[in-house]
Amino acid sequence: MSLIENFQNIFKIEELKNRILYTIGILLIFRVGTFITMPGVDAATLAQSGAGPATDFLGLINLFVGGAFARAGVFALGIMPYITAAIIIQLMGAVVPYFQKLQREGEEGRRKINQLTRYGTVLITLIQSIGFGINLLATQPDAIVVSSTAFIINCMIVLTAGTVFVMWLGERITERGIGNGISLLIMIGIIAALPTNFMNEWNTQANAIIVFVEVAALVLVTASVVLLTQGQRRIPVQYARRVVGRKVYGGTTQYLPLRVNAAGVMPIIFAQSIMFIPSTFGMFFPTNETVQNLTRWSGDFTGLTYSIVFFLICVFFTFFYTAIVINPKEMADTMKRQGGFIPGVRPGKQTVEFIDNILTKITFPGALFLSTVAILPAIVANFGVTPGFAMFFGGTSLLIIVGVGLDTLQQVESHLMMRHYDGFMKTGRIKGRRRM
C-alpha cells in the first residue's frame, strides 16, 4: 500500500479526521492571534524598525512565539511562561515533599499539579510582561502611543490574558485534537519562521550550490536527531513461569527499554532558561551601560563563551533530568514484584546497580551528542549561515520539531492500527508500532 493511500486512510476514520481538523483549526486561531498587535502600539511604526536579530535572547523568544514578540502581538509571550512554570513545578517535585506527595496521588494529584502550574503561569507572565513593556518603551518609544504607566498596565493585562488563552488552546488540542497541544503550539511557531529564514539565506548566499549543501547538511542533522530520539538500549527481562489453576502465566522474555536520550529536549530548555537569566536581568535595565556590559555575553548565541557555558550546562542537565525521570530502584522493585529478573543478575541491589550502570553508559554519549546539537546553530552561524536559518540546524528548535512530529505521527498511527489499517510505512515503523 502506497504512502498516499495510507494518508487517505486517515480521512476514512471519522474520529481521527475530526481530531486532525480540530487541531488545524486551533493552530490557525493561534497563528492569527500572533498578528494582532496589542493596544497602545503603533504597528506601522514598529514594523519599520524590523525584528531584532535572531542571535540574541529576544530573537530566540520571537522564534518560539512565531514572530509575535517582534510585532508586539497579544500572544507576544506565547506559551513560554507555561513551560517555565511546568519546569519549576517538576523540579520542585524532586525536592519538595508536598509536590512528591501530589505526584503519587494519581489523577487527583495531577489535577492539583496542573492547577498550580496554571497559577504559576499567570504569576510568571505578569512579571515577564513588565519586562516586555519596559524593554519596548526603551527600544521603540516612537511606537508607543499611550503614557508609560498606562502601557505597562496594558502589557500586564493583555499579555497575561493572551498567554492564558494560548494555554487554553493547547489544552483543547490535547483533549479533543491530536498530539500534545502545548508542544504543537511551540512547534508551529518555530516552523512558521522557516520559509522566511530560508529565503533570507537564499538571497544572502551568492552561490546556489552552497544553499543546497546547507540543506543536505540540515537533512543529515535532522536524521541524526531522529536516531538520537528513537535510540534505546533494550535489557532482556525474564519472567518466571507461574501455574494458577489450569493456566500458565509468565515464562516469557520481554525487554526493558532504556532510551539514549531519556531526558528529551528538557536539558536544552533548562540550560537555555539558565542562559536567559542574565539577558532577562539586562532587559529590565536597557539604558544601564554597566548592566549591559555584564550581560552582553549571554545575549549572543554565536559567541564562544556562550557556547562553552551552554554545552557544559546541557551535559549537566542531561544527567540531572535523566536521574529525575528514571529511577533504577523503582524499576528493580517493580520487576521483582512481577516475578521478573535480568538473566545473570540477582534481583534487588544488584539489579539496581546493573540498571544504573547501563543508564550511565548510554546517557554519557547521549549527553555529549545532545549538547553538540544544542550548540550546532552557533557553529554553522560562524561558517556564514544566516543566524535565522542557523537556528534550525539544532538546539531547541530542531529537537522540538522532531520530538513533537514523531509523537504526533505515533498517535495518528495508533488510531490507524486500532481500525486495522496499516501505518504510514510497512518498513521503518514509528517506534510505537515496533514489535518487541
Automatic annotation (TrEMBL):
GO cellular component: plasma membrane
Membrane topology recorded in Swiss-Prot or TrEMBL: Multi-pass membrane protein
UniProtKB keywords: Cell membrane, Membrane, Protein transport, Translocation, Transmembrane, Transmembrane helix, Transport
Subcellular location: Cell membrane; Membrane
Known partners and oligomeric status: Component of the Sec protein translocase complex. Heterotrimer consisting of SecY, SecE and SecG subunits. The heterotrimers can form oligomers, although 1 heterotrimer is thought to be able to translocate proteins. Interacts with the ribosome. Interacts with SecDF, and other proteins may be involved. Interacts with SecA.
UniProt xrefs under PANTHER family: SECY/SEC61-ALPHA FAMILY MEMBER (PTHR10906)
Homology family: Belongs to the SecY/SEC61-alpha family.
Protein name: Protein translocase subunit SecY
Organism annotation: Cyclonatronum proteinivorum
